[in-house]
């Protein structure tokens, strides 16, 4: 089968300090589908003139679409370039290589792919990764997405053949947007179980102090503020926050400064350490260095951080929301607390850090759960079935 993956942002995996979730996700899907014998091409925006127009990588081809400005561009700045991106795709699919199915990622990529495929009758599968309505509901006034995003996502959801959700909560949001439940399939992201494993090196730490690790971007809504406030109830433990800009740029980062000031104000300044973005290939060692990984975002469609932590044999304490609620089994692989319950979060962390036997049991169950349900080959096989279904449906229409 010929599969076109459309990712209208830019950048091959590895150019960033830690690859973005979307970049890494698309690259891994492409590699796994290629391994299954499919002819796969990834379409991304050509933002770097030093890169070639096409590249062979991991058994698939990366095709860089020459639209928009050079350099990294925020999503808001990509909106005006969607029509040109779409026209470029349609021309290539009509005249050159024509995919049997298109799988677009994020709403910008979806708009470009759906418009292009609409001229060709190619079926389209869409993964949003996050939804504007979801972010607006959880962030409220803190939501800063483009005003056009929510109505455009609603229109896009009606233009695709199947929407791929990554959590049960996302399924509910998509059906509330107007999709028929039969047009939504749940396919969680996979984990590299060869990289993320309990065996291997651990990042350095103070041996006598328990460590809580939080992984995610430094921005309102990622939950670090709740964790810092909860540390007052945890006792003698350190909170390590990995994410955001590189360590050398943290002093000039507004959210990093705010979190450090908050830690000082609540009396846990000596217990909170920001280490900045870490290379993806080193993240397993950071997970293994932790006694507990805390996942407290206000919204999360995919539970990648809890899955990576669980694959490393580390229990997770998280908010019962989105991908975290789907991946963490309460009292089996970790603990779930109601979203926003800072006191419950602090007391749960305190109790779990004090019980080594419980952490050991959760860690072992976590590894088993990931290896049985969340490997990349399972993700690719599930997507393959969806592609076959929409391709057959498209063939009947033709």
Automatic annotation (TrEMBL):
Q: What is this protein called?
A: Glycosyltransferase involved in cell wall bisynthesis
Starting at the broadest rank, the lineage of the source organism is:
Bacteria, Bacillati, Actinomycetota, Actinomycetes, Micromonosporales
Alphabetical keyword list = Glycosyltransferase, Transferase
Q: Where is the Glycosyltransferase subfamily 4-like N-terminal domain?
A: 24-195
- All copies of the Glycosyl transferase family domain together span 207-363
Please give one Gene Ontology molecular function term for this protein: glycosyltransferase activity
One Pfam annotation reads: Glycos_transf_1
- Superkingdom of this protein's organism: Bacteria
Which Gene Ontology biological process is one annotated for this entry? carbohydrate derivative biosynthetic process
